[in-house]
Amino acid sequence: MRCQCRQCGDGSCLSNGRKTMIWTNSKRVVLFGAIGLWMLVISGCVSQSEHDTKVAELKELKATLVKTQETVSQLQKDLDASKNRIEQAEQAAKNAESKVEALELENTDLNTDLKNQAKKLSEVEKRLSELQKDLDDAKSQGEEAKTRASKLQKDLDAAKSQVEEAKTHASQLQKDLDSAKARADAAENAANDSEAKVKKLEQENAALQDQVKKLSEAEKKVSQLEKELDAAKAQGEKAD
Fold first, then answer.
1. Whole-prediction pTM value?
2. In CATH, what number is assigned to the domain containing residue 116?
3. How confident is the model over 121-140, as pLDDT tens digits?
4. Full DSSP string of the chain
5. Domain total for the chain?
């Protein structure tokens, strides 16, 4: 629905078509009702007291319509704000879920690396034990085994270095795994908080929609009163 008034012409004054309809109808009700009542007074169909009563009712109706218009406008703003908050909360929940999935995948990879390193460490330690045994055997054989013992010592030193390297790598992997688990827990908590926030906002949104529905029913009652006033006007014209 686009505004056709001379003041704006670009639709800016019709952010809500229903508000404009309520205001226009209220002016129409007051104008037609006043004309009809004055015609009835002039024609002698109603008494002055009846006329005053109708005028008072029209004034009260106009005030009610203005207040209803303001209430509808505020409820619409609250409803729009609630929808925006729901969208933001849902997006935050989606982002948190994506982060959880990424962290879980990272945890899986780290667990795999840690298992591989543990297996490698076990193999190296086993090899180290065998080399140590061979070295001990070689030393017990005397001078003729010095050359072999020297080679075995080098192998032993290399194996020890591999063990230390594997332990260092495994320790770092364990730290990375603990850090990733902590981030995953934080992301899951954020996702749970976002879901709770979404549910709360949805409840608020439902309550606002219920109020808007009640105001719509009030507008229908106002429309019915317009018809009754138009009928009174028509009777006054027939009396003339």
1. 0.40
2. 1.10.287.2610
3. 888 788 888 888 877 776 66
4. -----SS-SSSTT-SSHHHHHHHHHHHHHHHHHHHHHHHHHHHTSS-HHHHHHHHHHHHHHHHHHHHHHHHHHHHHHHHHHHHHHHHHHHHHHHHHHHHHHHHHHHHHHHHHHHHHHHHHHHHHHHHHHHHHHHHHHHHHT-GGGHHHHHHHHHHHHHHHHHHHHHHHHHHHHHHHHHHHHHHHHHHHHHHHHHHHHHHHHHHHHHHHHHHHHHHHHHHHHHHHHHHHHHHHHHHHHHH-
5. 1
